[in-house]
Amino acid sequence: MSDQGILAVVSGFSGAGKGTLMKELLRRYDNYALSVSATTRSPREGEVHGREYFFVTEEEFDRLIREDQLIEYARYVKHSYGTPKSYVMEQLRAGKDVILEIEIQGALKVKKQFPDTLLLFVSAPDVAELKRRLVGRGSESEEVIRERLARAKEEAEGMAGYDYLLINDDLDACVEEMHRIIQAQHARVSNNQGFIERIRRELAEC
Ligand code: ADP
Ligand code: 5GP
After folding, report:
1. Quick one: which ligand is closest to 64's CA?
2. What is the mean pLDDT of the chain?
3. Is pLDDT of 1 > 80?
4. In this structure, are residues 76 and 103 in contact, taking their beta carbons and an 8 Å threshold?
5. Nearest residue CA, atom 13 of ligand 1?
6. Tens-place pLDDT, residues 34-46
7. Domain residue ranges in the chain
8. N or C: which end of the chain has fewer CB within 10 A?
């Protein structure tokens, strides 16, 4: 087993199915911890404070920044989003594989602080399907959908910097692929320094 949990970032166009994938991954496997972000946007129908997000005011968000409680934060279509630090660090130390479902600017900040972070990008198979999903979700106005699609154009520029691309066509296949990719990281040499040191010690003594 590797030294500690894997830190994985999942990004992708709005409506690609990130939230749906995360729910399914966590339902199937129990070694994952999904970080719950703070945001200044309003809850969608069915979203619960502390489960999908910590829904906070602009003032509360500013306080989290001032008190250095966030690993990263970014603006996305008129709202702020940020990753609470303490939960992520605790879960990694406990050996959990921690997933941050965050946008691209935040992903790059996390990678800078933690260079072993695995960056996964999720896309729908094509833009027509992406629009169908965004509209079908029925949670945003036409104007916000337009803004989110405009943001997707910018995000497409950053896709090449990610480690893996996941096409969310068949949900079941995509969940399994995500799980395989994350689990494979446990075998990376950089995640096994503890094992390497032990085996060297044992060899030195024999
Ligand atoms: P995101 O979190 O990336 O914005 P969601 O998880 O909210 O996206 O998914 C957007 C919409 O697409 C939802 O209505 C969801 O049920 C649907 N969806 C997600 N994955 C698939 C899939 N593989 N096939 C068809 N519809 C999907
Ligand atoms: P939504 O409003 O659809 O839930 O999220 C909008 C975007 O914000 C998505 O791309 C989502 O991944 C991103 N996001 C959610 N939480 C965070 C966070 O803590 N930090 C950053 N940088 N982005 C986040």
Report:
1. 2
2. 96
3. no
4. yes
5. 137
6. 999 999 999 999 9
7. 7-35+96-204
8. C
